[in-house]
Design goal:
The protein is an alpha/beta fold. The protein contains 8 helices and 13 strands.
Length: 245
């Protein structure tokens, strides 16, 4: 299975930290944030990875190179104009179109068993499986509504749902997609994958939520960046994929 790391964001909420460094390269315990994502993927035998680039993308390319140091092959997708989470995926459709693939945000620090995620996706015969988690501020993140079988029925309140009450979870920025998702993404221009998923729900596609309870931190603000650093320094979190090297 191939993977895509979304790394084209501007990191505006982290300024001034990101004035001269893209968010994926912010240091955590002496390593760039995106290296944690690469090591997670490598633990679960992902070796073919594409990373989309926009803001200070040349620095990401120079830092990571071709991925050989992690036993991986990294390709890069340059976006002169930022394309969003949907458009960025569509731009590399040829690379991802042969089999299900995984997409992960570059600005999260997470401990997750990706093999269980993939098994769940395959078992449910899902068009897409989104990794979800409980959060007391779920509505501020954008709620994902799932039924008792973990099938997603709503995203951000869309489409209308007349069935039983749904459990609210937040999207953790990791998902597995069947290649047919690509056909729903506009061929050109900016688009978000959430809008694509809403359209798929409206057309009856099978989208599921894989709920997990392990460590997760979104490195989207200075406060959460500091929290992640404190968690690592204080040994409050032990990331299994960082045990070696």
């Amino acid at each position: 299975m191939k993977a895509m790391i979304l790394a084209a964001g501007l990191g505006t909420r982290l300024r001034p930290l990101t004035n001269h460094l893209p968010k994926p390269l912010l240091p955590l315990e002496g390593r760039p944030l995106i290296e944690y994502t690469l090591r997670l993927l490598r633990k679960y035998t992902f070796t073919d990875v594409v990373i989309n680039l926009h803001y200070q993308g040349d620095k990401i390319r120079q830092t990571l190179g071709d991925g050989a140091r992690w036993g991986m092959k990294i390709l890069y997708s340059e976006e002169p104009q930022i394309l969003g989470t949907g458009g960025g995926i569509k731009k590399v459709a040829r690379f991802l179109s042969e089999e299900p693939f995984l997409v992960i945000n570059s600005d999260i620090l997470v401990e997750i068993q990706l093999d269980r995620l993939i098994e769940f996706h395959q078992r449910e015969k899902a068009a897409a499986t989104l990794v979800l988690r409980e959060d007391p501020e779920v509505d501020s993140w954008g709620a994902v509504g799932i039924d008792s079988h973990h099938r997603i029925r709503q995203l951000l309140g869309k489409p209308d749902w007349k069935g039983k009450a749904l459990a609210k979870r937040m999207f953790a920025g990791i998902h597995v997609m069947d290649p047919r998702v690509l056909s729903y993404i506009p061929d050109q221009g900016f688009s978000t994958i959430i809008d694509v998923y809403v359209e798929m729900l409206e057309k009856g596609e099978r989208l599921f939520g894989h709920v997990f309870e392990d460590y997760w931190m979104d490195i989207g603000t200075p406060e959460r960046y500091c929290n992640a650093q404190d968690d690592l320094k204080g040994k409050r979190v032990r990331l299994s994929y960082m045990n070696e090297g």
